[in-house]
């Protein structure tokens, strides 16, 4: 399969007074997997449905392979789609579900049966062709749905929250399988998800949306390590909010002066956004912070610490570095010297998140 370039040009779509897409501009390179990431209602599924032909934008255009397909009917688009709810035909077995699109296009029976068998083997279900959807697990049903989407050799694969209905272990296994298939087939893939870990683990690029607008697009490392806005920083991963004070292009926080990255608010009092892994912790009986909790996370330990002014800070340490840092212990805190994002000071102290990437 040869992937095609997909372009969103000034895409706008509103439902009554609700604006789902507000001038979306985004280009997906041929053969890449891009994740559209954002909270519910941010417009990511609407963007996907505009490519599939299930939604018609109010303004703007969708181009695939350089061709404007904005007004092309869905059944004439070269795209395969996998839905969150599987959407298999309950009266057809797995083989016939995979072959359904080929049957509609009047592909000869022998050819479509051979192709269906080939695709079931590709997705790891070579012996399940005779089973009906109710006889398959959720993960197996989604594999059948994926095989069906690939049956007509589309140039674009559209995945709408395809793993959200599965349990955690199956979800991890299947997302790795989807990535393997996407790389081996070279098919352009748009993957819609609200799960940050899912997006970061499978995508070549991640596009973060908010209120129908693109906040940032970049590699997973860029989006995580160098978020363009406080919203991206908050949504992708876990962030501490530490009180700070601006001084020119630097900010004072926990007794340190750090360079500021991105826009600078007007007022001097700000919240400094800091990842838990950039908090350095040193055990010391006369330290300025108290360990409140220590949560074992496998290779690392997440500490929740409280400073003298009541500020709580999350810190992620390698497990072997946290052996002397149990609840009630004391420690000194320092931050890795790197540019930080700042946001206007919250009217109330921000709650320290309990979990995240």
List the SSEs and their pairings:
Elements: E1 6-15, E2 18-28, E3 33-37, H1 44-52, E4 59-64, E5 67-68, E6 79-82, H2 94-104, H3 109-122, H4 138-150, E7 156-160, H5 168-185, E8 188-193, H6 196-202, E9 205-210, E10 213-218, H7 220-225, H8 230-235, E11 240-247, E12 250-253, E13 256-259, E14 269-274, E15 279-283, E16 289-296, E17 300-307, E18 312-318, E19 330-335, E20 341-344
Parallel strand pairs: 3-8, 3-9, 6-7, 7-8
Antiparallel strand pairs: 1-2, 1-4, 4-5, 9-10, 11-12, 11-14, 12-13, 14-20, 15-19, 16-17, 16-19, 17-18
Helix pairs in contact: 2-3, 2-4, 3-4
Structural description of this entry:
It is a single chain. With about 350 residues, the protein is an alpha+beta fold. Helices cover about 25% and strands about 35% of the residues. It is built from eight helices and 20 strands. The protein has helices spanning about 45-50, 95-105, 110-120, 140-150, 170-185, 195-200, 220-225, 230-235; strands spanning about 5-15, 20-30, 35, 60-65, 65-70, 80, 155-160, 190-195, 205-210, 215-220, 240-245, 250-255, 255-260, 270-275, 280-285, 290-295, 300-305, 310-320, 330-335, 340-345. The strands form four sheets. Strands 6-7-8-3-9-10 form a six-stranded mixed sheet, with helices on both faces. A five-stranded antiparallel sheet has the order 13-12-11-14-20. Helix 5 (about 170-185) links the parallel strand 7 (about 155-160) and strand 8 (about 190-195). Helix 2 packs across helix 3 (about 110-120) and helix 2 packs parallel to helix 4 (about 140-150). The model has no long low-confidence stretch (mean pLDDT about 90).
